[in-house]
Each structure stands twice: as C-alpha cells, then as structure tokens.
Design brief:
The structure is a homodimer. By secondary structure, chain A is α+β, with helices and mostly antiparallel strands. Chain A has one domain: 4-Layer Sandwich (Glutamine Phosphoribosylpyrophosphate, subunit 1, domain 1). In chain A, about 35% of the residues lie in helices and about 25% in strands. The longest helix of chain A is centred in the first third of the chain and has 23 residues. The radius of gyration of chain A is 20 Å and the shape is globular. At the A-B interface, helix 1, strand 3, strand 4, helix 5 and strand 7 of A face helix 1, strand 3, strand 4, helix 5 and strand 7 of B. Strand 4 of chain A pairs antiparallel with strand 7 of chain B.
Chain lengths: ~325, ~325
C-alpha cells in the first residue's frame, strides 16, 4: 500500500512539473543571422565558399559589436545593413525584381525590451530599408509605413533616396528574364535577418527583403508584418523568418514561437520545430525557416527547405556558418 | 489509508483536468459586429439612437443570411460591405482623412476553415476595400497587396475604381480641419468589423477602416495585419479589432487571443480580457477593443475605452446593440 501511495505521489510530481523545464545557464550574448532559405540546389564549390565567407563576415560585424557591449537593437540593425549592402542576398542591393521589372523592398525591426517595432513595405528608393524601419520605430508614432509615404518619411529623417536601378544586379535581371520566359519559377524565399541577445539581456530582431522574385506589384510578404516574419520580446525570444511569406502571415509564425514558449513552456527549439515542421509543413507552399535566440541565449535555426544560409555565435564560444 | 489514496487520486484528476473547461453547448450560429471604439463622449440622444439603429440594421443583414444557412465568410464580408457603404462609420464611405487631405483605406478578411486570408492597405480608389481583400484571398497567391498595386489588382478583378472624393463626408472634412487647427486630436480608433460562426461550424473575420484620422501618408494600422486586427481559426476563435492599431500590431492582439485559448485553455472571454485589459492597458496609447466569437458560438466584446459600437446575435436568441 505504501508503495502505491509513493507511486501516486511520484506521478503527481511528474505531472505538476511537466510544464516546467530546467533552463540552461544564460549566455552573456548570442547572435544568429540568415541570408534566406531555399530548395537544395547544386552550387559550384566556389559559389558555396563565397556564401559561407560572406555569412562569416556579417557574423564578424555583429560579434565585434557584442564583444564591445553594444546593444541588441544596434547589432541587429547593423548586421542587416551589411547584408542589405551585399549584392549576393535578396535585400537592398541585389534585391529581386517584381513582375513589372522594378524593386520593391520590405523591412522590419523590433526591440524586445519595450515591444517597440517599426516597418516599411513596398519602398523603391531607400538604400537601406532597415534604417527606414528603425526611424519609423523611433521617430514616428507608427509601426508600419508603406510605399511613397514611407519614402517621404525616410527622406525627412535624412536617408537620401537612391534610384531604383541601384538595387539591380546582372544576376537579378537575368532571373526575372528567365521567370518571364517560364524557364524558372518565382522564388519566394530570399530574405536576410538577424536576431540578437545582448549582455544586458535585451533581445532584438531585424529582417529585410526584396520579397518574392517575379512577385506582383504591391505584394507584401511576412517580413514587415510584426508577429509573422519579425518578432522580439525580452520575456521569450527574438525571431526572424525567411520563407514563403504568405504562409508565415497566415500562421503568425514569429509570434506563435513566442506564444508556445510563453504559454506551453516549450524550449525555443521545440517551439520553432512545432511551428516550422508541425504547422507550416502541413500547408501547401514551399516553406522556409526561422532563426531564433531566446532570453537565455539558446539558439534555434529550423527550416523545412533544403537549405538556409545562416551563421551564429555566442559568448561561450559557439560559432559557425552553414547552408545545408 | 484508503481515504488518503482516494484523496490523492481525486487531486490527480483535478490536476489533469485543470486545463480542460466544460464547454457550453454549441450555438447553431453567432454573429458580432463593431463600428469602432472610442473615448466616452456625450452624444445627443438622436445621434446615439441613430447609431444603435444603424448597428441593428447591419446586424439584421447578417442574421438573415445566417438563418438562410449562408456561410460565415460570406456573412462577414457582406456585413462589412454594408458598414463600408454607411457614411456614419470610419470605413469606405465616411472614412477619415489623412494629414494630406486624402483617404487611404485598409481591409482584411480571414477564413477560419482553411486559414486563408486576404488584405489590402493604403488603397485610395476601391469603393469596398473588403471586396478587394476577398479577391486577394481567393484570386491571388498573396495575402497582402498595398497601394496602387492593390488597386490595379482590384480593377483586374472587376471592382470599378471610384474617385477618392467618393469617401468624403462633410463631417470628416470638418474633422481634419479641426485636427490641423489643433482643436481636435487625431483619433486612431474608428473601424468596422464582423466575426461570424455559421451553422456548419466555420468561423470568419472581416475588418475595414479608414485608419487613424489625420494619420501620416502611408501609415498602415492593425486592420490588414493578419494576427493583429483580424484573425480566424475554426479550431479556436474569430477576432476583429478596433483600436490604436500600433498597439494591436505590437501585441499581435487577435492571434494572441487564439493562442491563449489554444495553449492555456482560456475561454474566449478570459482570453479577450487578458489581452485587452491585462496587456494593452499596460502600454501607453489610447486603447480600443475586440469582438470575438469562438468555435462554440460564445461571444466576447471587450474594450478598455469608454465605448465600443457593437451588435450581436445568436441562433439561441441572444441579440442586442450597445455603445457604452
């Protein structure tokens, strides 16, 4: 009888504590960045090496800032500016081309310390859309500005306009030519993003994109939709997505990861897997991925595609770059 | 000893079922609509009566359709078209004016049966933005189209363009004049929306707005942001928001209500109160409200402002209109 009572008490304790996980020790800082997700394709070794090298350079920019004690929001913004300026990624210089032959860019940033957020969508003449998003967050009462209204605001904040052709690269022009000739499918998955935990415990997320190649004029994906492609909350996690934006919006991907951690006690890895593999995978569409860093510096990089360009580093010495 | 074992077993059962609430019997159908929230202000009795009468007329449109077995998505869309066409609400005809003296409209619709969604933002020449949002959902691979790209798409779907002045009313032109003379504050809270459960168990949400009066050119609020001002999921709830859109976006209000029900077992009333009173109320800003109907036909109408124009009805005979 005593054994039965003990067994029951033990079972009760298991039940009571099942929602409560042991937290890993907090990292002093952590950073993850991505340069988009996509179907596995064969890349020439020198192209692959070049991408890994670029990811490493972007990581180095962020890592150095974090070692100098700079804050998460500044690090995430700066790394995304670097990726926007790099013509090899689909954001800023090197953005994809719409079906009408122009570039329309989206970006968002969120500060986990106060849930402030800023975003721009459908802008055509702002060199670094992430800086415009940052101004929306810090210098306007709004969260989301679109189109020419966003450009006009960015210029009033001192961001000089660039000609739309600034964003073009020979590769992107060739890509839209092939899409129009039906030799290539529109690719919804290129994006750049960065999530950061700084040594003060603040989280931030920043994401920027040229959107879906060959997209319809005026189409906006998940990136500037807070809670879909971008989210940060010091209480839980910072998330930046890259994928088939329409699915990310319909599933509120970034906020859902935070909600699963907050309300169901999942770890960041469990929550990211649940959303990307358990929910997105069950919908039609071509998928993508997320990068996440939680309030304790734990990292998750989950994708349901063949590859996601990514890099990560933590104060404790974890560091890497990967594609597949 | 036997008593102790029974007590322990009883305690275990309580623990196991604590996340599981008794559900009220499912209503055959239920509908809630809103015409915006705002600070309590003294209204002339005839103005107040007129609003209650308009809310009742809109409710009648939806109720009749539900009694005829029409589906949630069609009912929510039709009711919002009615409210857009009514010049007394801030959506469609009667929309507020931006700081630049024009009308820019946002709308979104979501089908809880398949998580399909459509939205338009910053459109200036679509008579019924909710119909454009519906076309985005059903006739494009996208979720969100903005500005002239959205208008171009809407026209290609057979929605004829209207001149921007169609949306103007003498009251809105007087309002922006007073805002510019600093005699009145910009008001972020007018919106219309409708949430519906149909007799097949399908949920739908539709929301439409002229946005914040005196808003900056290009500003987009929560309405077309899926998960912020509009959300529907047959597994949980349909939500339509009206409020200070920036707060609704930063808090992912509509999806959070669904997540609290799904992951924490809250009732729709508990979840709506937690988000509107427990979370939004703690942020700066002027608030607003939400209308919700869950998968069992339970209704919640929560607001942290002095008033929210609203009406509701269920198959079991609940019916009403209210402002305060």
């Amino acid at each position: 009888m005593k054994n039965i009572v003990l067994l029951i008490i033990f079972t009760m304790m298991s039940l009571s504590f099942s929602g409560c996980r042991q937290t890993e020790p907090r990292e002093e800082w952590a950073i993850v960045l991505h340069g988009g997700a996509g179907s596995a394709r064969s890349m020439a070794p020198e192209v692959r090496d070049n991408y890994l090298n670029l990811l490493d350079q972007a990581l180095e920019v962020g890592t150095r800032m974090l070692q100098n004690g700079e804050k998460a929001l500044d690090v995430a913004t700066r790394v995304v500016v670097w990726l926007e300026d790099c013509p090899s990624f689909n954001a800023g210089k090197g953005a994809v081309v719409t079906s009408d032959g122009i570039h329309e860019l989206d970006a968002a940033v969120m500060d986990g310390s106060n849930l402030m957020a800023g975003a721009v969508a459908g802008v055509r003449d702002i060199k670094n859309p992430i800086l415009a998003a940052r101004h929306v967050m810090e210098d306007s009462p709004h969260v989301l500005l679109i189109g020419e209204g966003a450009s006009s605001f960015a210029q009033s904040m001192g961001l000089p306009p660039v000609d739309n052709s600034y964003f073009s690269t020979p590769e992107r022009l060739e890509q839209i030519r092939r899409i129009k000739m039906k030799k290539e499918d529109p690719d919804p998955k290129g994006t750049v993003g960065c999530v950061v935990l700084d040594s003060k415990g603040n989280l931030a997320a920043a994401t920027s994109t040229g959107g879906m190649s060959g997209k319809r004029w005026g189409r906006v994906g998940d990136v500037p939709v807070i809670g879909a492609g971008t989210y940060a909350n010091n209480a839980t996690v910072a998330v930046s997505g890259t994928g088939h934006g329409e699915l990310w919006i319909r599933r509120c991907v970034a906020f859902d990861i935070s909600a699963l951690m907050d309300y169901k006690g999942m770890t960041v890895k469990e929550a990211a897997r649940e959303v990307i593999l358990g929910k997105i995978d069950k919908m039609e569409g071509s998928g993508g991925g997320v990068i996440c860093v939680d309030k304790n510096g734990n990292i998750a990089m989950e994708f349901n595609t063949g590859m996601m360009f990514r890099a990560w580093a933590t104060a404790s010495g974890q560091k890497g770059t990967a594609i597949e």
